[in-house]
Design goal:
39% of the residues lie in helices and 15% in strands. It is built from 15 helices and 16 strands.
Length: 433
């Protein structure tokens, strides 16, 4: 049995200092029971806890660590930057460098504003869309999560769904009164809503590859319909690529699917593990943002020198390796196909949602074979997932602690680690047939 005495001691103390002992509910193990593991350090694709147990990491800080932990390039630029100062609150050249990199990689972005989190990015993009169109209503999709923006915390995915508090206390009817909820991947319900109200809608915000009900890619027909109908009514289409950005393709889902949104929100990978978010789009829209335009948005640490240094190093690595995404996708498919084979071998019904280096192993209900939306995802056997989670954790495999989260691969996940993961899964599934 893995010993975790120090972890347990530190977490007991955390609970006396921080609500639930965590600084983000997604980490709380609420969906799998037990207590979260206190980690001490990372190296490549591995995490080490405070009791020095080693885990192959498929959470990667919920997405950012696409190069793996302590990548030498990222570490080197941070060591250099730290001696020049940590924050100035002035323009710095690195902000131009990071902006240029993102603009060169993401098809929809001509101008960009850097912020400090994905939540700030989506909150700002919604405000910009409303300021630009002069309209109030927004459309989001059930099971999509866009950060803890009041107007979007309705039927959210991720920890909100896991903790079954989609309508969080403290979110007022006033702030959600203009938010319309539709089922994800459902073309007909979208069409009928847009036929009635399309001209009143300021923005549609969507995860083009959903990662917060588990990994559920948007269908091409669904995403193309969002693009086509929103164009007719001059509604702003926002691709929330905080998770899918730089993950499902170098240029994100918009490059993979060939669909260009009006605005894109980014986070996670763009900061290489430091706090960076961003929103961007066509110049004629972005120039409505203060001080160029009148839509207010600000941030003390936006474009911070350390964060931009880590972001530049990370995006440079993925931009300069022509085979980066082929290698990542091969790793993901090897693992996903191996897990499905183990399901067949052990007589356990499994389904995999995958896109690029995002994937989720689902334990579907008897009536579902594939997971395509929140309705099918929410019927999954979450108790069985919880047993699988602990059987894997106790074999040194660190998975996201909820059926409604996404696993991530890094370029540092070796073939040996993937095989070790499959061997652990074979035992875990056999234990629970
Ligand atoms: P942050 O504010 O957590 O940086 O980003 C919010 C956000 C926005 N959009 C999408 C598509 C996201 O997935 C997220 C955040 N994702 C969760 C994981 N499901 C972050 C983990 C957490 O909340 O601790």
């Amino acid at each position: 049995m893995t010993k975790r005495e120090r972890s347990q001691k530190i977490f007991q103390e955390a609970k006396t200092l921080i609500p639930g002992g965590v600084n983000s509910p997604a980490r709380a193990f609420g969906a799998v029971g037990g207590e979260p593991i206190v980690m001490a350090r990372g190296k490549g694709a591995c995490l080490f806890d405070v009791d020095d147990n080693c885990y192959i990491d498929y959470v990667l800080s919920w997405g950012p660590m696409i190069l793996g932990h302590t990548h030498p390039q990222v570490t080197a630029v941070l060591e250099d930057a730290i001696h020049k100062g940590t924050s100035f609150g002035t323009p710095t050249e690195n902000e131009n460098r990071l902006a240029q990199l993102v603009i060169s990689l993401v098809p929809s972005i001509e101008k960009i504003r850097l912020v400090n989190s994905g939540t700030e990015a989506t909150m700002s993009a919604i405000r910009l869309a409303r300021g630009y169109t002069g309209r109030n209503k927004i459309v989001k999709f059930i099971g999509n999560y866009h950060g803890h923006v009041d107007s979007l915390l309705v039927a959210a995915g991720s920890s909100a769904a896991t903790l079954s508090v989609p309508n969080s206390p403290g979110v007022t009817a006033g702030t959600t009164g203009d938010t319309i909820l539709l089922p994800y991947n459902d073309v007909s319900s979208f069409r009928s809503l847009f036929a009635q109200q399309g001209s009143e809608i300021a923005a549609i915000i969507v995860e083009p590859v959903a990662g917060n009900m588990g990994c559920v890619p948007g269908s091409l027909e669904f995403l193309q319909t969002l693009r086509k109908e929103s164009q007719k009514t001059a509604t702003i289409l926002i691709f929330d690529e905080v998770m899918s950005g730089f993950r499902v393709a170098r240029g994100g889902a918009q490059e993979r699917f060939g669909i260009i949104p009006d605005l894109t929100t980014l986070g996670k990978v763009i900061g290489g593990g430091l706090p960076v978010g961003a929103y961007g789009g066509r110049t004629e829209i972005m120039d409505h943002v203060l001080p160029q335009g009148k839509v207010f948005q600000a941030g003390t640490l936006s474009g911070n020198p350390l964060a931009t240094a880590a972001g530049i190093a990370t995006l440079s690595e993925i931009a300069n390796d022509p085979f980066f995404y082929d290698k990542l996708e091969q790793k993901t498919n090897f693992l996903a196909d191996g897990l499905l084979e183990l399901g067949r071998k052990n007589g356990v019904k499994l389904s995999v949602g995958r896109c690029g280096s995002m994937m989720t192993l689902f334990f579907p209900s008897d009536r579902d074979d594939v997971i395509i939306d929140w309705a099918t995802a929410s019927r999954c056997d979450t108790k069985r997932f919880a047993r699988y989670f602990w059987n894997m954790l106790n074999r040194g495999i660190y998975l996201p602690c909820s059926q409604f989260e996404t696993m991530f691969l890094s370029i540092a996940h070796s073939d040996e680690m993937l095989q070790q993961t499959l061997d652990a899964a074979d035992q875990a599934l056999r234990l629970d047939r």
